[in-house]
Amino acid sequence: HGGYITADEYPALVFYGVMCGIYALFAILWFIWCALYWRELLKIQCWIGGVILIGMIEKSAYLAEYEIVNRHGYKVHAVVTSEVFSCLKRTVARMLFVIIAHGYGIVKLRLGLLKQKVLAMGLLYFLIAATEAILRLNTKNDEENNRVLISRITLAVIDAAIYYWIFTGVVATTRTLRSTKNIAKLNDYRDFTSTLIFAIIASLFFMAWLLKSHFFTTCITNWREFW
C-alpha cells in the first residue's frame, strides 16, 4: 500500500480510521440532540458526551500510532496513551451505568452517599484496568504471564461486582417506578435491563470462545481468527 506498515498491522490502520469516523458521528449527533433539548438536559447527559469524546481521543491515538508507522516506519508508542484513555472511558461508562441504574434524575434528585461509593469504585476500577493494560503491553507472551493473568482475573471480579450493583439498582428503581405508576420511565428501564442482559450474555460467549481458542490451545492455526 506504499507505506512502511506491515501486512498484519495494515487492517488496524483501516479499522481505527473507521472507528474515529463513527465516534465523530456520535459526537455530532449527541451535540445536535443536546442543542435541541438543552432546557431538559441532566448533568449525566453531559457526562455521556464526555464518554463519547474520550472514545474519540482513544481511537485517534490508535490511528495516529499506525499512521506514523505507515508514513515514517517507527512507533511513537501512542498505544499507551490510547490504552489509558480506553481505561478512563470504560471507568466513566461504568460509573454512569451505576448512577442511571439507581435512578438519578428519575426517582432521585441527589446521589447522597452513592456519590462517594461510585467515585471509590471508579478509582479502583481505573487503577486495576490501567495496570492490566500496561502489563499486557509490556509483556511478550501475555497469555502465559502470571501477573497479567492475575490482573485480568481481578478486573473480571470487579466487573462482576459492578454488574451486580447495576442490576440491584435497576430492580430497586423499577420497583419504585411501578409503585408510582410511572409507565413511560418504567418501559425505559425495562429496555435498559434487556440491553444490559444482552451485553452480558454476549460478553460471556466471547470470553468462553476466547478461552477455548486462545488460552487452552497449544497452537493457533487460523491466523485470521487470531487477528
From TrEMBL:
InterPro entries: GOST_TM, GPR107/GPR108-like
Record's keyword annotation contains Nucleotide-binding: no
The GOST seven transmembrane domain, residue ranges: 11-227
Gene Ontology, cellular component aspect: cytosol; Golgi apparatus; membrane
Entry membrane topology: Multi-pass membrane protein
Main location: membrane
UniProt superkingdom: Eukaryota
Gene Ontology biological-process entries: retrograde transport, endosome to Golgi
Transmembrane segments: 13-38, 118-137, 149-172, 192-211
Locations listed in the record: Membrane
Protein name per the record: GOST seven transmembrane domain-containing protein
